[in-house]
Fold this sequence. Notes:
Blueprint lengths: L11 E5 L3 H11 L5 E5 L2 H9 L7 E7 L7 H11 L5 E4 L15 E4 L4 H18 L2
Parallel strand pairs: 1-2, 1-3, 3-4, 4-5
Amino acid sequence: MLSFERREPMGTILLVDDNPLRASMRKSLLEGTAPQVVRATNAAEAFCLIESPEFAPALLLVVTEHLMQDIAGVDFAAEVRQRVPHVPVLILGGNPGAENAYRGMAGIYHSSTKSPQDLRTLVNRLVTLNERQYA
């Protein structure tokens, strides 16, 4: 007899957000999509985690803002992909037309959704895609 069980994702989502309130809300929203959601408050902290041999192997997805205080979102996303090319990056928000900055960048996705359910669905798809690709 075949058994169809929903398999829980294995790994970590890195949330990079310098706004404590927004980060807390997003972290709560994302916690059902991966066993662990870790928050970095800026790009430097995120890069330290990404370079960590204990952290990097379990990394499934990086979620961040288009507008960051210490680095442009497009520069951050490109640097993440250079350091961990197998990890997709989801860029949230930004001004109208912000998605144009990410066109042609492999593994980088942009969303302007304001809906928590749409964001959760998108993150689930990206996590599943990454798990299948590198399982």
